[in-house]
Amino acid sequence: MNSTEVPAIDQLQELAPGAPPFSYVPQTWGWAVVVGLLALGVLVWAVLRWRRWQRDRYRREALARLTWLEQQHAEHRAVLRELPELIKRVALSMPSAPAVAALSGPQWQVFLQQHAVQPLPAHLAMQLRMLAYGPDTQLMALPGAEVQALLATCRRWISDHVAV
Q1: Of 87, 81, 97, 85, nearest to 59 (Cα)?
Q2: What is the pLDDT, as a whole number, of residue 53?
């Protein structure tokens, strides 16, 4: 081979990468402890989130039923009669639920208010009682805006109530 000849590009070969001058493995046991603690923290967080998700199952089911009621009430106003029962079932399903089965009237209003995050209308228990026991003519005469406000209040209470 002549020294003036230039080699062709296809004759070039890649150089093998050299070993790094340092190791990627931590050299002290402290890093293993840090990684272990992080893994333990993530595991504890995941378990707590899963338990909370399981505990709040009754809320998700109640909100799904409320969504169905909201869709159906335009055609059949009588489905609103299920709303007081739904609220009572949510109260009975709360973790460490107090004795709410026998509550009615002012005591029911006080219970709802105590477990609400935001203030509730003062006449919510009366509206729920009217929905459950009122005559059909009174139910049909409810204005649409009042029904929407009642449904929104119930949705807010179901999703945000404080389960003591």
Answers
A1: 87
A2: 93
